[in-house]
Amino acid sequence: MFKRITLFILTNLAIMAALSVLYAALSALGIVDASRGLGAYGPLMVMSALFGFGGAFISLLASKWIAKWTTGAKVIDAPRNDTERWLFDTVARHANRVGIKMPEVAVYDSPDMNAFATGATRNSSLVAVSTGLLQQMQRNEVDAVLGHEIAHVANGDMVTLTLLQGVLNTFVIFFSEIIGRLVDSALRGRDDERGGPGVGYWLTSIVARLVLGLFAALIVNWFSRRREFRADEGGASLAGRDNMVSALRRLNRSEESHLPDAVAAFGITPRGSSFGALFRSHPPIEERIARLQAAH
Asked: Is 149 part of the annotated catalytic residue set?
């Protein structure tokens, strides 16, 4: 947790420094009137959007590469055995039913029962499963898990989550900048003509970004939990409701996900949060099972 907070602070310091340099450059070029101070909201919003959406879309475009690199997933180019052939054919069958191009299919070495899907578009995706899932689940249950992951792809969840994250990033950056400048201006007083942001700006911006970032995380994780329910319904539609329920029950007896941070939110097995249920990317499996059974 300390490592994540440290990385978060360092990242935001870098963003604030870059915004300050860019703002100063635009002022020097006459594109932004520095004398207007807080009145220059338009350029600030544009810069916030560039940073907010830029980071989110770079992560999306690199998502398959990052997933393969962090998990060591090996793409099945030519099935080498019966299990890989069945896995490849099952993904192909589900992809054909929902009308998307065949995803890349990969297996990564892990004792966890887990699987995930990622990719920049519906027609350029990756579906990966762990060796633990293949070894500990029946094929009808794996079939349902693959249906769940294909449903994520068909629903465009990766792109939607990226757009949501980009919007929230933009507003977090924008409002933390405004708050930092307001506090800095109040602390300086009217007679202080020093150039550049002061200590009040830096400290307040960091705190504002932490607080606003927590609220943004609440929204992102709320959406993430909703998409898990939809993907469960998709898996039930593609592989059978009983098979989806059976797969979730087996997952409920497994340990929490140990996927790397970069792809943890995309795994079918939930991961805990030290901040509580509202910050979890997945709803409790018992609740997912109950939803499926109630819809039967």
From this structure: yes
Contacts of 281 (CB under 8 A, 6+ apart): 221, 224, 225, 228, 264, 265, 270, 271, 273
Which residue matches tokens 């307001």?
182
| 87 lies in some domain | no
User: What is the reported pTM?
Assistant: 0.80
- pLDDT tens, 98-113? 999 999 999 999 998 9
In a domain, 109, yes or no: no
Which CA distances in Å does 254 have to 113, 209, 221, 247?
A: 7, 36, 22, 11
| CA separation for the pair 233, 218 (Å, rounded) | 23
Q: Of the residues 104, 141, 149, 233, which is catalytic?
A: 149
The dihedral sign for the CA sequence 61, 63, 65, 69: positive
Structural domain of 289: 1-66+138-296
Residue 186 class from Cβ within 10 Å (0-12 exposed, 13-18 middle, 19+ buried)? exposed
Helices (H), 29-81: 41-61, 63-71
**272 within 8 A of 264, measured Cβ to Cβ:** no
